[in-house]
Amino acid sequence: MAQLSSNLLYIAFFIYFAASIVFAISLFGKKWRKSDEATHSKKWGMWGFTLSAVGFLFQLGYFITRWIAAGHAPVSNLFEFTTFFGMAMVFAFLIIYLIYKSNVIGLFAMPVAIIVIAYASVFPSEIQPLIPALQSNWLKIHVTTAALGEGILAISFAAGLVYLVRTVNQEKASKSTFWLEAVMYTLISTVAFVILSLGFEAAGYSSTYQFVDQNEQQVTVEYTLPALTGPTDGTYVSGNEFGPLVEAPAWMKGEKAAHKLNTLIWSIIGGLVLYGLIRLILRKRIGAAIQPALKNVNEELVDEIQYRAVAIGFPVFTLGALIFAMIWAQAAWTRFWGWDPKEVWALVTFLFYAAYLHLRLSRGWQGEKSAWLAVVGFVIIMLNLVVVNLVISGLHSYA
Amino acid sequence: MKKKNRLIVRTAILAIVFIAVGYTFYTNFFANESGIVQAGDQAPNFILTDLDGNEVELEDYRGKGVFLNFWATYCEPCKDEMPAMDKKYNEYKDKGVEILAVNVSEPRLTAKSFVDRYKLSFPVLLDKSNDVTNHYGVGPIPVTFLIDKDGQVIRKTEASLSEEVIDDYMKQIQP
Amino acid sequence: MKSNKLLNMRYEGSARRSQTYRTTIVDKIWNFFSSVKVGIWIIVLLLVASAIGTIFPQEMYIPPLSDPTVYYEEQYGILGQLYYDLGFHNLYGSWWYMLLIAALGLSLIVASLDRFVPLYRALKKQRVIRHESFMKRQKYFGVTEVDDNKVELTSIKEALQKKRYNVKEEDGHLFAEKNRFSRWGPYVNHIGLILFLIGGMLRFFPGMYVDEVLWLREGETEQIKGTEEAYYLKSDGFILETYDNNDAKFKDAIEASGQAAVVKNYQTDSVLYKQVGERIAGTDPELKKIKEHPIQVNKPLKFDGYAIYQVDYKLNELQSMTFTMDNKETEESVGELTVNLYNPEKEYELKDGYRVEVMDYFPDFEFNDKGEPTTKSKVPNNPAFILNMISPEHPDGEVAFVAIKQNLEPLGENEYKMSFQNVDTKNVSGLVVRKDNTLWILAIGGAIFMIGVIQGMYWNHRRIWVRRKDNEIWLSSHTNKNWYGLKRELESVTNQTGLQMPIDQSEQKNRY
Predict the structure, then answer these.
(1) Same domain, yes or no, for C324 and C344?
(2) ipTM of this predicted complex?
């Protein structure tokens, strides 16, 4: 059952990939189209939607079979949560597509969902037993609702990105073009990180170092990427003998600081290489390369989709990530609120989208300003998923 | 007229909010919630056994001043004030002031051997389940309650006391 | 061209009350908090402050017993020291953070009142016939030429009613409206938030909140702190279960985690008692059994507004120690004694005139700064005894100092010695006693907030004005959001009635 489950996930992943390509054809492929523009994009858009829906069904199959195999809702660790978040994004996209029939949202939303699911694959995917705190019906209720809310909000990011690519003036370099490229670069470095991690894992790369931490404890760390930065005064123990080239600066404390820094550096370098390659091929900014394909996109409609996704997602997020979270925390941790980092970042996300709505409704922040806010909102959600789980340790670091 | 009403409504709303927030801040940052029994309260009655197994009831001391001290052998400041307490006890016991030293849930043996070593003459009571300690809202020890002849707490102190201070306190509760 | 400029419909074109008055200090404070701009600033400041609080762990999450004055510097270096010096280690309980939350609450009240009242009035007394320029300046505006009465107002009315519009007619003009209630959404959700904040504030009022720690040893009955001495709890045992490391399902994950075992269950089998009748402190309580309940994580024991949670444990705490008294030379034992570490006897009688006197007992032994033997606490973490071993050969006894893995003879060489045999241990449950009388208001506040947000976000307030002018029919329309939905509705209505589809005037302007 567990094997079937992971196979279904692979299939879903590749179908999503195909769907993205089909959405790209619906927008880019106008040069070799035989039919007129509207029919072409309608036809290919329908295919894109169908593929996305089929992929979603496969992933739903993964979810159900894994649930059966594990005996509990598969949302209990980082691998499971991140995959589910990707699935929630696809689900949100399907709904938005049914309302607005917008292919260009698919072109941006599906690849983001793919990156999210790919990122999930970096985490250990074994079926884990539930620790006592997680043994509750609220596990499935709280986590799925929160992830669905985040998935819908992620669609507003996709729409915001479309808006920016469509409208930012690419004729000359500006702050807007720089930050837009920065967003592209971040997405690309995530891809690079996944490729590197899976590549070295497939090659069986591993090296272990030993060092004394600030509590005078002997600690060993395992590197699955070649060690560029090693722990202070660390000694090589076993495995591949490369590196470390330099020691992590002494002010970086914490047991895994050097290891985390190493991962970060690999992501940055990998991202730079991949981004550089793409720029070399395109010979212009990525935003500028995509822009022509979007010239017929109705920017006002995209702006509305972006806002609509927030309008739909904000209540779902609040319900799942704050209200259900509080009900569960009252039962499991004796208090509904305890300023745990994950809790705080859910509040930060809530406050951010509250500010977004007030800026939009009362101060008229629409169009580009609103689109940038949608991008920042997604950055906050990803920070909560990535940084808070991996860097800041708290009650939620189960993985 | 309309304008005046509006001002009244606004003032009322702001006043309510400021008072509520002010009170919250007061209780959170300034209020002293260190115990249940405070100066001015009637000292709650209790019955405990002393080191020899005799029952001692607080109410039987009505008409006398009671120097009620909470202590333990692991508490250094408690130990420090013991010799002075003993000295003053012998001075004031004929003047109607009694010391009751409640040991906070240590084994009888530990308390007894400590009392023998320090040659203490005042009664030491054993609060084996922390019952009286909790009832009086005693947190970190030592804590001393000064109870007057009418059974009213006139002072609560959490400091380790010197001989002069004990003398002064005994005078305060001398009937 | 003036008519091309679209009308700002946010507050129905009417000025907010607060902006028209500016006199006393009360009005000045009021106007300050009435501003949405100020409200957004408060939200942003709260957001940034909250985020800063997660950079390093808050004081409540650093390891217990560690000293915060050095912990932050030791763990996080200069930045940690700075964090501590700025007071960020206790950010969420700081006066300025609480002041920000209070400011948010005030802003919610004032800004909502200032907007709700005029909006309510404006929407209540809407005229059916609007001025021509009002219609022209709506986003969707269209003119249809009609000869005679081909397009009947009644058919438009019916088409709109079929779309669930509430249609009013006056002098051959129409005004259709639906989902006005969604405009109240923001105010409803603000009421919910205000209730929630009031709930948070109530916590600081006496008697609203109880939070106590209760350590309960197996077999013991303890008064439950915070219940005003009304309840007692007994532990019938603490259970710690782990997953089977060879479980087919979880084997891989447990191996990969590197942990020796993964915990499956923490449980205290408890019995709840109520104290009946009057009682003087210090006397034994008269207990009535209320219920038995296995307290597990996620399954607290609930009674009378209280809840008791399983949060911690200590395994194998010393309970009693067993020794034998042996002749050192012959290794022969003259008897055995078991000492209850919570209440040792004064004397242990062995056979044939042998006995052991306990001269002193230190449950948590150490030497103090004066070099005297003393105890650190009352918990027998490191029990030590001074014993007097009485035997027929030594009727006055031989003194021995006995501690864990230690045997001293302070008064000279002894003939007898105490040999440690074994210990008896018990598990201790770490429980938390909670009572939170603010939960109901928080729940109501949260529910109202959700209703308000959904009401405001999932419905849209749509209005359509139809005006007859000579042989033209004018149609204009407005919605507070989801213009795409409105457009589709207009398409459907115009299709049915033969009217011209109104033009999106903002789109006309924006095209390039």
Answers:
(1) yes
(2) 0.89
